[in-house]
Amino acid sequence: MRIYLDHNATTPVRSEVADAMDRVLREVHGNPSSTHSEGSAAREALETARSRVALLLGTRPDRVLFTAGATEANNTALLGLLRRREQAPGHVVSTQVEHPSVEAALQVLESTGWRVTRLPVDSDGVVALTALADALCDDTALVSVLWANNETGVLQDLEAWSAIVREHGALLHVDATQGIGKLPIDLGSLSIDLLSLSAHKFNGPKGVGCLVVDPELGFEPILHGGPQEKGRRGGTENLAGIVGLGVACDLADKELDQRSLRYSMLRDRLWEGIRTRIDGVKRNGSTAALLPNTLNVEFEDTAGEVLLQALDLEGVAASAGAACHSGSIEPSHVLTAMGRTPESARGSLRLSVGFGTDEEQIDFVLDRLCELVPRVREAEGA
Ligand SMILES: Cc1ncc(COP(=O)(O)O)c(C=O)c1O
After folding, report:
1. Do 310 and 241 fall within a single domain?
2. pLDDT at 49 over 70
3. pLDDT of residue 295
4. Is the CB of 71 under 6 A from ligand 1?
5. Does the annotation mark 324 as catalytic?
């Protein structure tokens, strides 16, 4: 038996999604840009998917720009937008805990003369709203924030961020990749100019996502080519993937409340078991505003990468707070920004539940952790 507790890395594709994609691959072979009947059928499938995404987010379909995932959406939001709009490099505000697809784009902006303020987080992983307000300057063109942190699940308060940024007159980009499909969001009531999401984080296929952006907001395409996506992204659309994204949105729309309750019940069962049965554990991140499915735990005096391997051998997939790069252990930038030492980050694991996780699996993982943590500590000489 394999138990998958790494749903923040990626999720299994739901059978409803796979069936819809299968149908498109087998039956809808037209190019959505073609004017014949086959093209019309493909276009219809594309626009149905666009409407489904828009419905989940509470926005207009013409704002949905399909991409090859959230990395492309984030790059389009930061690089495409700013390069087009601004005559001269100005100022961007973001945070110290962004996903690499935003952080890397920020570094590209810096290399071309932009100033970037990366707001710190407190020990709970939350950015102070006063720091956001203080960081905004006359030439701040854009604020880019990660809504739900992929490592800790900690949420930034989007309502407060959008109010502060709107009052100042800058544009707001939200990387909502981890929140979509787990939490409700209504773009009709929030002042968000750009939003990125990715299908594979909520039971859709990999390699497809979108940037939600007002068509009036001009930007330089990242992919230059044909007139697809109203000239905003060249290249024939990944129709099967986009249809899969649409179905994943439809399922999320119907199941959101029940998913949220179920995921948080399983996550809390896991934490309760860890807290009461294993010594020397600490939870990373605020519990006040958190993704329902994510638990980040430090097992003190434990080598996380060894624990992870031991869990994998026992049939459990999870993720670590430190990654091995060219032979050395790199602590997570998110946990270090929260003030954790490299050792604490090294002993931290991310356990993320999702579709298919049940109570029996959680209890199995708890039993394995109870056996493995003391063994790994012993091997470390703790
Ligand atoms: C918060 C966040 N942003 C962006 C991405 C990138 O998404 P994609 O894999 O679709 O490029 C991820 C995926 O790991 C993520 O967790």
Report:
1. no
2. yes
3. 98
4. yes
5. yes
Domain that holds residue 278: 3-9+256-380
Last residue of a domain, one of 252, 282, 299: 252
Same-domain status, 52 and 83 = yes
| Shared domain check, 302 and 247 | no
**Cα gap 212→292, rounded to integer Å:** 24
Is 248 found in the same domain as 260? no
Report which ligand 1 atom has the smallest distance to the Cα of 208: 10
The pLDDT of 229-239, averaged and rounded, is 95
Q: Is 204 in the pocket of ligand 1 (CB under 6 A)?
A: no
pLDDT in tens, 123-178: 999 999 999 999 999 999 999 999 999 999 999 999 999 999 999 999 999 999 99
Q: 338 and 293, same structural domain?
A: yes
Average pLDDT over the chain, rounded to an integer: 95
Question: Which of 213, 233, 252 finishes a domain?
Answer: 252
Query: What pLDDT shows up at residue 330?
Result: 85
Across 5-14, 20-29, 292-301, 316-325, least confident range: 316-325
Is any atom of ligand 1 closer than 6 Å to the C-beta of 198? yes
